[in-house]
């Protein structure tokens, strides 16, 4: 049986867990709950991790009917935020797995990418520097996925050219998605730019099916290039992802502090939503989650992973349910009108 829990990290290894310094990529799996106990993790080689992950995906149901694509399973990355030591990240990852990826109706497989955040509440600037240093590591992993998906796509094309095609053994049985939280979105942003550049900036060839930018600690004009190609970070994300959803709330005090401390006046995407002075790529939208939280909720920044309404919203977003359908069902506020050109 494939493992239940998966982790890739560029944190240094310590006797009792993972530290706050950058190190070579390492790969870990577990079948035991209590993931903040390092003894519950087993180290594996990169090849073992890849082989196990491919085996896990091969157990997913094969869904070829376009009408049933929302039922297709996922392989998803969770990228944690700035104020997380290793144990914090492991606990949050375990809760995400239990709430969205486990059981018969689970979304599939979730992988924790843990980077060496300082785990200090006021460590904004050091963590921002660390993100830039770690971006090549995540880009390397995403590049492996890109190459694998491209290879499978090419195999399907070759098979379809035959007189009696059989694509069942060639087509991918999983969608690939990312859930990034807080400054993990800055890591996501920078790694996607690196990946897009390394792959010669392909257009209209998606790596990710869904990108969920939760309480994103990034500039809210990230996608200001709209449908134009300007080779920016936002351009890279938009071209490598089928749909990007930014979940935000003006009730998030952490991102209010973030904007004042380190970002020189630009609003945070996770607090103010998308800067609507600019045109948007057609596959990018935002959701104001303020009313999905209880009126007395104080931990908004991390509350997305605790509040049942936002958890269910994320599940439906990952399944690929259309934004207008989500709004009509009351699962999300209606999308705001597109910016005026």
Q: Overview of this structure, please?
A:
With 341 residues, the protein is of the alpha/beta class. It has a single domain (67-87, 97-107, 116-328), classed as 3-Layer(aba) Sandwich (Rossmann fold), CATH 3.40.50. 37% of the residues lie in helices and 20% in strands. It is built from ten helices and nine strands. It has a nine-stranded mixed sheet, with helices on both faces. β1 and β2 form a beta hairpin. α3 (124-160) packs across α4 and α4 packs across α5 (233-240). It is globular and about 55 Å long.
CATH fold group: Rossmann fold
Query: How many domains would you count in the coordinates?
Result: 1
Classified by CATH, the class is Alpha Beta
| Total helical segments | 10
Globally, the shape reads: globular
Mean pLDDT: 89
Q: Nearest-angstrom radius of gyration?
A: 19 Å
- Please identify, by name, the CATH architecture: 3-Layer(aba) Sandwich
Number of strands: 9
Helix content range: 25-40%
The fraction of residues in strands falls at 15-25%
Order of helices and strands: EEEHEHEHEHEHEHHEHHH
Catalogue the unreliable spans.
none
